[in-house]
Amino acid sequence: DAPAPQSEAVLKRRNKSFAKPQKNYYAAPPQIERGWKEHLFDVTGRAYLDMVNNVSILGHGNPTLAAAVGRQWSMLNTNSRFHYSVVADFSDRLAALAPEGLDTVFLVNSGSEAVDLAIRLAWAHSGRRNILSLLEAYHGWTVASDAVSTSLADNPQALETRPDWVHPVLSPNTYRGKFRGAGATEGYVAAVAETIAAIDARGDGLAGFIAESVYGNAGGIPLPPGYLQQVYAMVRARGGLCIADEVQVGYGRLGHHFWGFDQQGVVPDIITIAKGMGNGQPLGAVITRREVADSLEREGYFFSSAGGSPVSCIVGMTVLDIMQTEDLQRNARETGDYLKARLEALGQRFPLVGAVHGMGLYLGLEFVRDRETLEPATEETAAICNRLLDLGVIMQPTGDHLNVFKIKPPLCLARESADFFVDTLEKVLSEGW
Ligand code: PMP
């Protein structure tokens, strides 16, 4: 379907002066003008249910956030090297959210920057370079965060082009990976042990390990039980640091846990966060131990002009305030559980639904052509996304086969909206997939 004429004109201008590799959703996207809670409105006034926006955790158009930002902008916004109080307030607050011992915060502007900095900390602290990263992962676009990204959906050449300090390990995907179901942990841990043994044999040591602690990029798949405990122990035995990338799955989205690593019963050495913490404002952070943070001084000092600016800190503080007053983690848990149960019921009726992964409001709905072979229903998933757009629902695929719906709506998602999503999906699936 062609977009509305005025929207097509803007799309043409976008394609003229905006660099091509910056992808947008959909071949014929609606031109979005306004948002309210989990809803988006295009220039024709048409409403869409936004089921994919993991950036706006509070929802769109939050008036409390808008007022707080406006107030701070008109009072002061400046380079973060000046002395002002809100940077201390926000750092304290983030450190208080982290497990004990992770008491030191760096403020940056994005998830990519946070991951880049985490890798640099692992290098500086260990004095070594080698980093283990999961296959099928996405961690960002900057040089180091891109290096540890192995997702074929984001870069089909990823595996041929990683630098030699990156050591990808088997994707611990218990649904379609090499080891499945209960008992898979051992196989995946052994695969990591093998890669570590090869690094041991090279003799240049291990700097660290990075992973999303619930496998978001693969479609919200929980890591096998005990996986991080065993892998973290092997990495630490070699003086390496364990990085939990919580950019997508952390910060309350899982509902049952504030942090993804809570689900694995581990405490990382470094946490990276971004996305929802700024509700769309560029904001990222690294939380670690004091001695790890201090090790960066061996490489000079660190400074980010806008990272931790007064406006960024006010955004971060206000997001946390609103999450608390609106009890959004509870909503992620309750509405997420409700949504998951409804999707599972849908799976009973439609064989194309292979599995429903995830928890809270980070769910993955995986489409397969055959439940035995698990052949990914990639083209079907793309077509279903397009059909959902026709019917007013925004949804996009993830995973190496692009056959998993990444369901990560604003955490204020109402039960009626969850119902609208499932009812609309049911209608689409009934059309003959
Ligand atoms: N880590 C993970 C797990 C992500 O999903 C992303 C973004 N999709 C990033 C890091 C990079 O974040 P940003 O886009 O804010 O640079």
Tell me what you see in this structure.
- The strands form 4 sheets. A 7-stranded mixed β-sheet has the order 4-12-11-10-7-5-6, with helices on both faces. Strands 1-2-3-15 form a 4-stranded mixed β-sheet. The chain has a 4-stranded antiparallel β-sheet with strand order 13-14-17-16.
- It starts with a helix and ends with a helix.
- The chain is 37% helix and 17% strand.
- The chain contains 12 helices and 17 strands.
- It is α/β, with parallel strands linked by helices.
- The protein folds into 2 domains: 5-58 and 327-430, Aspartate Aminotransferase, domain 1 (Alpha-Beta Complex), CATH 3.90.1150; 63-325, Type I PLP-dependent aspartate aminotransferase-like (Major domain) (Aspartate Aminotransferase, domain 2).
- Strand 2 and strand 3 (47-50) form a beta hairpin.
- The structure holds 4'-deoxy-4'-aminopyridoxal-5'-phosphate (PMP).
- Residues 110-112, 115, 138-140, 212, 216, 245, 247-248, 274-275 line the site of 4'-deoxy-4'-aminopyridoxal-5'-phosphate.
Key features?
binds 4'-deoxy-4'-aminopyridoxal-5'-phosphate, 2 domains, Aspartate Aminotransferase, domain 2, Aminotransferase, single chain, alpha/beta, globular, 433 residues, 37% helix, four-stranded mixed β-sheet, Aspartate Aminotransferase, domain 1
